[in-house]
User: Which sequence fits this backbone?
């Protein structure tokens, strides 16, 4: 039978692993984004930067998967519900804004970074609501 | 689903943290189960039954 000590240790370890890979991925994103503008002119380096971005992104996704699998059943449910909300909001809001943009009715330029922020905020809001609900 | 985890826990002089420790979940999960906000999976229900030396139906009762 697992103990909370090992459960907690497992959680601590997987959270730390996820944080480290997220940080590495953020740094590789910055390198791939700003490298061509500030560090180099050769497009070969840009390809290498994007490749690094994709590899570290894959590692972050795997670390997140492991983190979710190491949660207990209630925590997994809370994350699942939050993901359902953020996915739904991303699809509905994204398509809605896309329709407006096609008709030149959107007052701002919509890009993927905007949707990433929307997904992140709805995911965090979903988690906060669920944490409060199951408190 | 109703359950008697709180009573069984008190009888065995265990805190929520102790019980969580013994069955390998978070304290929040034990609290949510006790308050009837969350129904545990069968494996977790078996772990609780095993810990309290009680059959599952001695801990959980179905509410229609």
Assistant:
């Amino acid at each position: 039978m697992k103990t909370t000590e090992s459960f907690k240790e497992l959680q601590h370890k997987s959270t730390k692993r996820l944080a480290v890979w997220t940080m590495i991925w953020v740094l590789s994103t910055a390198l791939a984004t700003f490298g061509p503008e500030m560090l180099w002119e050769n497009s070969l380096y840009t390809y290498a930067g994007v490749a690094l971005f994709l590899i570290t992104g894959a590692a972050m996704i795997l670390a997140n998967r492991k983190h979710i699998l190491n949660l207990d059943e209630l925590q997994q449910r809370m994350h699942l519900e939050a993901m359902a909300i953020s996915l739904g909001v991303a699809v509905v809001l994204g398509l809605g804004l896309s329709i407006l943009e096609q008709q030149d009715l959107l007052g701002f330029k919509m890009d993927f970074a905007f949707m990433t922020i929307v997904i992140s905020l709805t995911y965090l809001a979903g988690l906060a609501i669920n944490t409060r609900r199951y408190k | 689903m109703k359950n008697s985890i709180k009573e069984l826990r008190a009888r065995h002089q265990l805190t929520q943290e102790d019980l969580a420790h013994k069955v390998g979940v978070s304290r929040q999960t034990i609290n949510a189960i006790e308050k009837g906000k969350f129904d545990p999976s069968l494996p977790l229900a078996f772990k609780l039954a095993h810990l309290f030396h009680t059959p599952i139906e001695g801990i959980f009762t179905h509410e229609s």
About this structure: Chain A has a mean pLDDT of 92. The radius of gyration of chain A is 19 Å. Chain A touches chain B through 16 residues (CB under 8 Å). Residues 34 and 76 of chain A are 36 Å apart (CA to CA).
